[in-house]
Structure formats: structure tokens, C-alpha cells
Amino acid sequence: MGTTDSKLMESLDAGAVQPGSDALREFVAAIAAGAAARDRADADTRDAIALVRAARLGVFRVPSAEGGGGATLPQLFELVLDLAEADSNIPHILRNHFAFVEKALRARHLPQYQRWIERVHANELFGLGASELGTQNIGDGDGLARLEPDGSRYRLTGTKYYSTGNLYFDHIIVNAKTPDGQFVGARVSVGQTGVDVRDDWDGIGQRQTASGTTVFTNVAVEPDDVLVLANDVKVPHQATFAQLYLTTIIAGILRRIAKDAVDLVLRRERNYYHAVAPRPADDPLLQETIGELQSAAFVAEAAVLNAAGVLGDAYKRALAGQPDEALFVEAAKRSAKAKVVIDQLALQSATRLFDVGGASAAKQSAQLDRHWRNIRTIASHNPALYKARVLGNHALNGVPLPAAAFF
């Protein structure tokens, strides 16, 4: 297994990395340097998460005055792009933590979040236990996990799936149901008795995200760590953050594809005998393909950052106590439009990468198939065809966008 660069750890341990800083660039470069080994399972993803902790990336969005990175929401999405280009598994692992921090920043007046965000300040990471099998509709929130009274405490029992990142985290916010029918969020520690985070994810892509099963068996939960979800802070289209985040990861992979394509052509020393030019870099067909891949990456990046800018404005207004529903709706529309186009662009680009590389690009050692596998896996979280239908129905008939999870 790989080990973490101790010199880099020492430089990062000075404090939370700031947007645009040398320390942040050094951190992203270190993530990129270990990506191939992690994909081959020759290095441990925990080493990358150790770098995340050393950089105090968990407080990237926390105000600088509180010891955080002080990043704006668009700056967070720029970081997601950079990390996805380096290794798409790492930003995917962190998605639930960053989504939790966004909620915590808006909900400081609630005592639960006051306690929980102190743990974020202490450089601890939060995961999520939400998805379950057996519900009628994906994302309907009708969780089967049970939270039952036990003297002065509660006991949590249930099974959650697609538990991205929980294996690497400190805490999990678990969606559950009480005997009287209330939906709640309960904080448990990953290491406490009865919490079993299983590394059983067998997806074709995003293999290091540990997106497997988490089983809770009679887990003790303190009353202070239970929040009735009806009392939670909500914003219109609150799933937009998580959805746009995933599309941004795909845009980052697309940026990597464009760079890999250039490297492939420049490394090639020979061309097909019937090609237009003997030197691959002088071949107009390859030049055209490279130009199209570069353009696809540019458009994808522009689209997600455009949507992130609107979502950032919406969050700013909400934090100031003046939420603007129209801004949230616009952010949701832009996020959905970006996904519909970027998913297709990225999958096409991941295939066209092999057109510029020749047979050697298909070698297992090149690991270029990981781009298609990772894009396909992320895009499958919420198929674009459903988003496209909703956007079309909205444009034609004025039907509002869905407001629940997964949109």
C-alpha cells in the first residue's frame, strides 16, 4: 500500500487551505500523483483522505474568521473540478460532507447543528445514511431504519445503501423513523458499537468511494444528536447542490480526458500507413478530434460554474435571511440543463479518447477505460432522460420542477 508524503503533510498541517493558494495546488497535485496507484489498488485511499484532513479541506466553506478556508460556493465547485480531474473518487467521497456543511452553515440557530458544526471545526468529517432498498420510489424519503426510545437514549437499527465515503469519515447523519411516525436525522459515530460500514461496493466505476452498505444494529444515540426533520432548515430545490456536484465531477473527468488525449497523440511516434500525415501530431483528423475534446471540456466547465454562480447567489441570500425562491429555481434549471448535455458529451469523449490513441490506448496498464466507467457510474445516479423530460414539460407547459430529492 502507498504512504502519505510526510513533507506535504507537514506543509498542509499549518492550517486550512485557502482558495487559489499554493498549498491548495500542492494538495491537488498530490491527489493526482497517487490516482493511478489507487485505481490499480496498489495504494490506499485512506492516504488521500489523510491529505484531505491535513489540508483541513472539511472546513473549506467555513468562514476564515472561524478558522475555515473562507471559500465561496463557486470556489468550492472550482475545487471539485480540479479534484475530479486529479482523481474523481476523492471529490465524490467528500460530497456528503460538503452538503452537510452547507446545511450546517444555514442552520446554526438549531442546537443540534451548533454541536455538529463544532465537530467540523475540529476537522471531523460527516457522512450520510439515507438510501434504502425496498421503498416504492427512489428518493421518496420513506426510510425503514428505526429510532426507538431506550431509557434516556435512543437505539438505531437499519441498513443503508450507497453509503459513499462513510468508511473514511467520523460521523454519519442517519435518516430514520420513530415509532410515532416522525422522520428524524440521528448522528452516530462511525467507530461506535453497532455501526458496521462495509466496503462492499462493486460498481464498474468510482471503485474507491466505498459506496457500499452501512448496517446499524442497536446503536446508542444521544437525545441531543436527534433532529426531527420537520424542524430542519430547508431551501427550495435543496437537492440542487448534490446534483450539480456530481455533474461537476463529470466535467472534471472530461477535462482529464482532454489532457490525456493530448498526451496520447504527443507520445505516438507512428501513424497508420493510410493516415493523412506520418506524424500523429500533424494529422488533421487527430488535430480535429483533439480540438473537439478540448471544446467539450471547456463547455462542460463553463456550464457547471455558471449554475454554481447562481446557486451561490441563492445560498448567499438564504444565509442573509432573505431567501429568493426564483434564484433556487433558476439554479435547479441550469444544473439540470448542464447534466443533460454534459453526461452525453463526457461519455462520447471518453470513447473518442481511444480514437486518438490507437491500439496501445486499450492496454490495461493505461487505465484509460476508467474515465468511461467513472462517468457512467456517476451519471447513473439520476438518469438525464428524466431531467430532460421535466425541462421540456416546464418549457412547454409551465409545469414546475420537482422539489424533492434527486432533482
TrEMBL record:
Keywords for the protein's UniProt record, in alphabetical order: Oxidoreductase, Plasmid
InterPro entries, A to Z: Acyl-CoA_DH_C, Acyl-CoA_Oxase/DH_mid-dom_sf, AcylCo_DH-like_C, AcylCoA_DH/ox_N_sf, AcylCoA_DH/oxidase_NM_dom_sf
Any single GO BP term: L-leucine catabolic process
Domain Acyl-CoA dehydrogenase C-terminal: 250-382
Source organism, top-level taxon: Bacteria
Database matches in SUPFAM superfamilies: Acyl-CoA dehydrogenase C-terminal domain-like, Acyl-CoA dehydrogenase NM domain-like
GO molecular function: 3-methylbutanoyl-CoA dehydrogenase activity; flavin adenine dinucleotide binding
Protein name per Swiss-Prot or TrEMBL: Acyl-CoA dehydrogenase
